[in-house]
């Protein structure tokens, strides 16, 4: 017989509020803080650091509005638990500029007017910065010609050439509801040249 039929006591287990201390290097600043084990990097950046560039769009890692760089790689910060990032170097859109000088990708977005409402722009910019590094390191995308993909014994080594198709494919994880895609691609092309 199952326990329901026997009238077993069905008290739920108590909720345990777990926290840990982590050290994060956010935009060049080392910070040690205590985080809830359930807190995402996105929530931590916005609520604990006051960095509101990365946005909560879908909260499922599908829109890219929350994209930041973690240890130089672009990630959806809504999917990463902050507690698992102890010691990580995190760069947000706010940390790309050097003083009053915008990062080249930021500058290109301004010059090309590669935005409309601006909601997705911080994620688009961080993703573009990470994507440029991935291509420079020779990481292929779905549209990269097989004979140029790094890691293949018969492949050419070195960076992957970025044309409009490569840029669109590599940026496809970042959605823009306003449809600023043509200008985003142009801005990224400007940085490559």
Automatic annotation (TrEMBL):
Keyword Iron set for record: yes
Keyword Oxidoreductase: yes
Annotated ranges, domain 2Fe-2S ferredoxin-type: 20-96
Keywords carried by this UniProt record: Iron, Metal-binding, Oxidoreductase
Annotated spans, Disordered: 138-157
The protein's name in its UniProt record: 2Fe-2S iron-sulfur cluster binding domain-containing protein
Species of the source: Streptomyces durocortorensis
Lineage of source species: Bacteria, Bacillati, Actinomycetota, Actinomycetes, Kitasatosporales
């Amino acid at each position: 017989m199952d326990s329901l039929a026997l009238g077993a006591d069905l008290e739920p287990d108590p909720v345990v509020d777990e926290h840990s201390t982590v050290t994060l290097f956010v935009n060049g600043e080392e910070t040690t803080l205590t985080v809830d084990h359930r807190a995402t990097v996105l929530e931590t950046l916005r609520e604990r650091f006051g960095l509101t560039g990365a946005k909560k769009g879908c909260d499922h890692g599908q829109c890219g509005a929350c994209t930041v760089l973690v240890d130089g790689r672009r990630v959806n910060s809504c999917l990463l638990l902050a507690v698992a990032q102890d010691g990580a170097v995190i760069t947000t859109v706010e940390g790309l500029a050097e003083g009053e000088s915008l990062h080249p990708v930021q500058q290109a977005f301004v010059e090309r007017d590669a935005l409309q409402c601006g909601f997705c722009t911080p994620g688009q910019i961080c993703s573009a910065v990470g994507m440029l590094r991935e291509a420079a390191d020779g990481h292929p995308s779905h549209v990269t010609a097989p004979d140029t993909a790094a890691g293949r014994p018969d492949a050419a080594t070195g960076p992957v050439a970025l044309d409009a198709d490569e840029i669109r494919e590599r940026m496809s994880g970042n959605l823009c509801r306003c449809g600023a895609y043509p200008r985003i691609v142009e801005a990224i092309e400007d940085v490559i040249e």
